[in-house]
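Holo prediction. Input below; ligand is iron/sulfur cluster.
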Amino acid sequence: MSDRQQKNSSTRTVNNLDDLPSPYLSGVFDLSEVKSVEIIMARGCSQNCSYCAIHESPLRYFSFERIRDEINYIADHAPHLKEILVTVADMYENVPLGEKVLPLLKKLAEERKIRVLFYVNVSTLSHDSVVRLSDCEYFDVEVGIQSLNPSVLTTCHRLPDPEKIKYNVAHLQQLAPRASIYLGLIAFLPGDTQESYWATLDWAISTRANVSVNHLRIIPGTELYDRCTARGIKVSPDYPYFVTATDKMNEEEVFSVSRLTTQIFFTLKAISQSHFLHTEFFSLAASSKRKNPHTALAAMLARLWIKNTETVKIFEAFVRGFEQTKSLDHDLRTNYISPEDIACLEEKYRLFKPYLSK
Ligand code: SF4
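Structure of the complex:
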């Protein structure tokens, strides 16, 4: 028996989650000024991604009645609520429960203009009945993609089928067109080359969904952590255990890929806030003959803005905001460019455009 298995076997598992007291229904929280809450639908996970520890406990759900009562309690006691995070590894896995919970969340979200974020697994996007119930303008649906490299996905115990992943994401966009879809990637997974990383990011941007890139953390006790040394992967000794070198990228390459990703996200942030830049970006990318046209164009545009004496200040402020998060993850939701700065980026873009089209 491995150390991990021994640890798991000695950990007490609560089989019926409803036996756990609800901090909401027990009145523990004063929600009168609260803007953000978390509703826990389940614990554990049925998947076994090699970099994750959540599946160390089996998947169990709270009953619909318990979840419904918590949602109603929160609706009655949190007058300033702006966002709800629903904690469940995959909202679409338990179809009967999802079919009951999603309409409740949708009703509350639409009545009170509350954003609701939940996670789904890319392999269950074919569960049409629950996917359709996600068609709400206040829903943020986060899909873990991680990579499109089949050997990387196999190592991570994820669905190793890029075409199926692409099909499922398009299917989600078709069935829930009003939801905000976030495609989550992980940089520096074992086996991921620079080429496959940029190809994955390029595809994700091309879908026009929101994209985030998490810098791989390898947590002690996970399967991947146990294999790090054998694969030549280096991990920071301190929390949050970011990877510093992989079997395919040395430390300098990890640093430079991460820095270029920051530049690309500067462009993605700008186009997410400007209808004009958004239209121009996808029009230019569609006519480009370059390999990975979206990442290439985003990087080129960022470099032009960085070289300009006015717009470099906007980029530097963006990087400072990124550094303040003390995370190496790239997420469009954690930074903001002011309307004045967007106007300045648009003005300089008009000057750069002839160079970008070449
Ligand atoms: S990454 Fe998500 S799907 Fe994979 S084991 Fe962890 S919680 Fe489950």
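The chain is about 45% helix and 15% strand. That is the main takeaway for now.
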